[in-house]
Design goal:
Blueprint: H1 3-16, H2 18-22, H3 35-55, E1 64-68, H4 76-79, E2 85-90, H5 93-106, E3 111-115, E4 129-134, H6 143-156, E5 157-168, E6 176-180, E7 188-192, H7 195-204, E8 207-215, E9 223-230
Parallel strand pairs: 1-2, 1-4, 2-3, 4-5
Antiparallel strand pairs: 5-9, 6-7, 8-9
Helix pairs in contact: 1-5
Bound molecules: S-adenosylmethionine (SAM).
S-adenosylmethionine binds near residues 22, 70, 116, 135 and 141.
Length: about 230
Amino acid sequence: MDFENLAKTWEKFGEQDPLWSVLSEDQKQGNQWDVENFYHTGSYYINNYLKELEIKGIFKANGKSLDFGCGVGRLTFPLANHFEESHGVDISLPMLKLATKQNESFGHENCFFHHNLKNDLSLFEDGSFDFIISLIVLQHMEPRYFVNYLAEFMRLLKSDGVLVFQLPAAVENRASYLSYEAGMNPEMEVFGMDQDDVEALLKGHGGNVIESVEDHACGDETSYRYVVKHS
Ligand SMILES: C[S@@+](CC[C@H](N)C(=O)[O-])C[C@H]1O[C@@H](n2cnc3c(N)ncnc32)[C@H](O)[C@@H]1O
């Protein structure tokens, strides 16, 4: 789907079933997520992952973080416990409204949510962030769109910063379309890109993939979590 429809789709998801459209577990469809359990998945992930990066000597949390495709703030809120400023950006206003509402009880004064309807991140200046993360986001847009965000992440990343993102590998060595629950309304598309192509693309923007670990973020599809620094 084109960019305009991508925005409309996530607006609908945000209105209809926001938590399930973020974490699509079968039994949670129809607003069945327990809110506390839902947010706990994010804090568990972020706390452990930042610890892992520190133990490996890759990155120690400091400064400003960016959560791209933040949805309802599942990762943005726990990031606020580790960074001076935690920024979340999303294409879907209903998702962001929910995040802001949720923050009335979390009370993170260093969390900032941004609505962005562009296929770039021109709302932020070069070198704005020490840490950028994007999980289960890029896979839901066509490669012609996510390649632009990957370039933008490198532009926004400080010289000693770390970028972490997840993306499925492509089937048959091509950017692929994998139908996801055909007939779903609104429709959720899933795309990927071959690992070598991802690495070459980042290299073209001055990035060096220092780790790519297979994960289970995309059901049965092979997916990777990449860790990138400036080369
Ligand atoms: C599956 S959810 C993941 C949310 C969050 N990353 C998490 O793990 O909790 C995907 C999110 O990406 C957002 N999104 C999709 N395309 C986007 C784009 N082009 N720019 C910003 N956000 C986008 C959607 O609105 C949705 O909130």
